[in-house]
Amino acid sequence: VAALFISFRCFVLGMRNVDDLLSVAVYTRDRVNPYLFNYALSVALLHRADTQDVDLPSFIRSFPDKYVDSRVFAKAREEANIVPTNSRTPIEIPRDFTASNLEPEHRLAYFREDLGINLHHWHWHLVYPFEAAFDVVNKNRRGELFYYMHQQIVARYNYERLCHGLQRVERFIDWRKAIPEAYFPKLDSLVSSRSWPARVANQKLSNLRRETDQITQDIDDLERWRDRIFDAIHSGNARRADGTNVALTENEGIDTLGNMIESSILSPNREFYGDMHNMGHVFISYIHDPDHRHLESFGVMGDSATAMRDPVFYRWHSYIDDIFQQFKSTLPRYTEAQLSNPGVTVESVSIESGGTRNALNTFWQQSDVDLSRGMDFQPRGPVFIRFTHLNHQAYNYRVVVNNSGAAKQATCRIFMAPKFDERGNPWLFRDQKNMFIELDRFRVNLRQGSNTITRASTDSSVTIPFDRTFRDLDTSRPDGGNNLAQFNFCGCGWPQHMLIPMGNTDNPGFRCELFVMISNIDDDR
């Protein structure tokens, strides 16, 4: 199945021109698995030079069943067949449709099950596939970005946990022990007409014997790959297939390590270092039926579009991140020359929001999304769902910078972290550094003397605006020029509405620290 999946993706990517691609798409659309078709075509549209201006529909519009409570679709059929178009009301998805407050982990359901967050994870892996044509996979710093994207997800999740008075997530470090948390996704597949399997409490990983899926793997394999990766980290060298070594250097080592751990076809020795991260997902996704005796398919951890819904995703990636942190601990400290930007000093930093200084406000918001494209029937007109999500009041940064030298360009980075740990104590920096979340990154022009930088939170380069996450490709399409180029954008980015953690209702709120650095732009090229 996996080999067929990869072969079809490469086949679509290899079409000679757009006409051939369109012909193949028309022919295969109703002849192959819809998920396979959508993924392969999406990868092709994103990576072919001749389709860069082709719109890529939001995945939730194509396959809403991967994101929406299964009860919605029965109501949608009724709405579409009985209610006139101009009299329809959005179908509301309750905030607590997967669990109750009896489950402590459910306090984070608004984060784990957020539509934008799950779309972000799916789209990142679409842009950075681990297997495809070499030039598609071999992107600049791909392995390092695999580390950084997931590290930021874990940091944000831990941030939200602290806001709710919970401990940071516990690493899934012992693969022989039971996983205490359960997860019941409450999703149905419109393609297979079956429910996504649940993962009950206190289940253990088992050796996989799923011959039908061509998956035969032991937990011993995971442990062997892990040990070999740690050997590479502590020796400072990874072994290539030809017996030579590739040094895990200060500048390139984390990129090599990211491709080893995930793993991608860029791994220096995939046979030796294995497929630890990906197979970890697979082991967990089949925990309910490891030998296929019950003919069950994989759970949500087996799909990048749904994996972030499960609490164990964050336990698994906390462990993966810990491996990267161990590698970082072997590197020499940054030198003053590496960190400094001679002549540039950040004098002050503040945030202004709604006339209030240095305070951020979050709130619940309801938004509507049209799912008519993804129904397994042909609806007459739009079918809207209404979901509740976190959002925050827009704000502005005000950074005063002094430049004692000549006018220059620089890169401004803005991060935020909790001020106190779970016990209410100030952080040790070695722990707090892993809690910083990136809020923005942009270039600035510094003139000689004092400079005041004002930046709107809605302009953040690390986020994707809410309306673009759930946009309708059939309306509001610009005719051309820069506006069309902006419309046909990549789609990567953290959802803007989840930029700021929830906080809490205590007085004066959840205490945070803001960190701003102005770095030499030559070091970022």
TrEMBL record:
Record has Zinc as a keyword: no
Alphabetic keyword roster: Copper, Disulfide bond, Metal-binding, Monooxygenase, Oxidoreductase, Secreted
Pfam family, one: Hemocyanin_C
GO biological-process terms attached to the record: melanin metabolic process
GO cellular component terms, A-Z: extracellular region
Compartment list: Secreted
Domain annotation Tyrosinase copper-binding: ranges: 310-321
Database matches in InterPro entries: Di-copper_centre_dom_sf, Hemocyanin/hexamerin, Hemocyanin/hexamerin_mid_dom, Hemocyanin_C, Hemocyanin_C_sf, Hemocyanin_N, Hemocyanin_N_sf, Ig_E-set
Single Gene Ontology MF annotation: metal ion binding
SUPFAM superfamilies according to UniProt: Di-copper centre-containing domain, E set domains, Hemocyanin, N-terminal domain
Keyword Disulfide bond: yes
Primary localization class, coarse: secreted
Cofactor: Cu(2+)
PANTHER family recorded: LARVAL STORAGE PROTEIN/PHENOLOXIDASE, PHENOLOXIDASE 2-RELATED
Family the entry assigns: Belongs to the tyrosinase family.
UniProt name for this protein: Phenoloxidase 1-like
Organism: Diabrotica virgifera virgifera
